[in-house]
Amino acid sequence: MHNDYYVSIMNKLFNNTEVAFALKNNKELKRARFLFKMISKPSLVKIGSSLANFAIKTHLPVTGLIRSTVFDHFCGGVSENDCLHVVDKMYSQGGVSSVLDYSVEGKETEKQFDAALNMTLKTIELAKERPDAIPFAVFKPTGFGRFVMFEKKGENKLLSSEEEAEWERILYRFNVACKFAYDNDVLLLIDAEHSWMQDAADDIVLDMMRKYNKEKAVIFNTAQMYRWDRLQYLKDLHSIAISENFYIGMKVVRGAYMEIERERASQKGYKSPICIDKKATDINYDAAITFMIENIETMALFAGTHNENSSYLVMELMKKHNISHNDKRLFFGQLYGMSDNISFNLAKEKYNVAKYLPFGPVRDVIPYLIRRAEENTSVKGQTNRELDLIETEIKRRKAK
């Protein structure tokens, strides 16, 4: 499918560092170089992660240091309003939209689940006020309920009366968020998590799609394509949507929990849900976006990827199916602080692009930041590519 003409366009497009880093000053660029150099060394990431965890647990005064380095590179701010200067700058100067992602993880009390719901409602309100700059809101299923509840429900285990009441509260939170998004015409992404809790989350999201996606895709689930069963899941979901007359919204990603998934499968002696290797995952991912674009009349795609070939394949398929660059059913997505060469160059060509913009108190966002660093270290070539682009831009500016 990738002919030479397109490959040469892609190389030119994603290698344009002037556009990629137009919003970064020299100081920010040098900070990015420093961070990616650190992240490229797995041993340093391990030590840094342990130190960060230790510092947070023992209340050492490190938030200032973390904020001015890794936090400001990968996060939008400490609160939703704190992010708005980044949101406005990215959209007005680079044409890139934002998804405000409340990245506080591992909180497991009813009070904190209600707080996460309220924060989701706040971000939906902000998106309503800035529909172009913030086209989506997002939440994680375990932000609204305990992991173990999704696990039990997915395994069809009998719940106690207290657990039944707890599960009802989870369903209530999902519905409140989805209805509020629908009422305010804001698209809502629901992230995917570990495979052994995902079935229960998928069932809830399917019900939300049935309810709120009758006119267009408002509610989006997430398909992690490192799971070999997800292409069939997508096709089965499509059949249900066709027969029941609703639209599918889907964020398609590769996935972020590979090591944990493989480890658990081998410990518990079941077949790993993860594709056999990176190549199989790539094939699976590209098959999913191809299937969705071929069925764009009933589907909306958020292509979450840092992979240049997959980004390019989406462009190619859009051209093949005569889909305009700014068709609202199709978004590209990357994480803030990564793959600016994809995000800003696509936006310059008038494609819809949104960056996930994590936010939350510095101490609470540390687990998210550690996962980002570990992910960068484990994705072959990702960090080197980031470094090469940064070095190229620093040299280009010096030569001016």
TrEMBL record:
InterPro entries: FAD-linked_oxidoreductase-like, Proline_DH_dom, Proline_oxidase
Pfam family, any one: Pro_dh
Keyword Oxidoreductase in annotation: yes
Single GO biological process annotation from the record: L-proline catabolic process to L-glutamate
Superkingdom assignment: Bacteria
Endpoints of the signal sequence: none
Keyword check for Oxidoreductase: yes
GO MF assignments: FAD binding; proline dehydrogenase activity
Domain Proline dehydrogenase positions: 88-385
Keywords: Oxidoreductase
Record protein name field: L-proline dehydrogenase
